[in-house]
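User: Teach me something about this protein's shape.
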Amino acid sequence: MIAIEVCVHSKNDSYVSNAVSGAWQGGAERIELCSHMEQDGLTPCVRHIELAREAFKDRPGLLVMIRPAGGDFFFSRNEIDLMERQIVDAARAGADGVVIGVLDKNTSLIHQDYCRRLIERARDYELSVTFHRAFDATFNATFNATFNARADWKYSLEALVELGVDRVLSSGISWGNSGTALDGIGRLIDMGRFVSGKLEVVVGGGVSLDNASMILESLQPVMTDFSLHTYSAMLEDGRVSSEKVRRLKSLLAHE
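Assistant: First, the predicted structure itself:
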């Protein structure tokens, strides 16, 4: 079964409760709770995680963004310490998983030491781990022989497999470039083949009711372990629409 993951903006108490309830009623298997979507998603407050847990009931798909600052994906040691504490807070508030992503400022590749720390903390609380679209920012990493690193998506996926993450969120196109997951479909197919059986590819970036069928038609013949991540396409008047989530699930059921 292809899971649907709905991103929910952690705006305020009532919005979180209503939005998560809408995703739940529509049948979403997972939600990703993020604050400050204008900064591409930051860590939500504990209160909102607790409200999301109540609204998502006993469905084991409450994922929480762990990102203390926007602008890029480079974090200091102090910020990594903070992220570890945020992971613990999320677990205690009822999260089933966390969404992380840390890059090395020198190479723009995955910072394996910092990510390992965060993953180990998440595993202490039996949380799943998704690596977010910081992955897409590694597509433009500059090769530097000093770090003995191949600057390509295969190197990044190998690193994530070695680290033991459960999922990677990607559009298939470089971070900051325009376009949707449909534009990155070729790379997504290559990624799925490369990590088959080792890592779930969460396809995100402009996934909508208009293009979901085309994305599915392209991926299903060659990929077995993927899901769809969507945000603005599930909104109606700024709120998560259970009907739109239900329609997306219906599209998946007919593919």
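Now, about its shape. The longest strand covers residues 4-9. DSSP finds nine helices and ten strands in the chain. If you'd like, I can walk through any region in more detail.
User: That's plenty for now, thanks!
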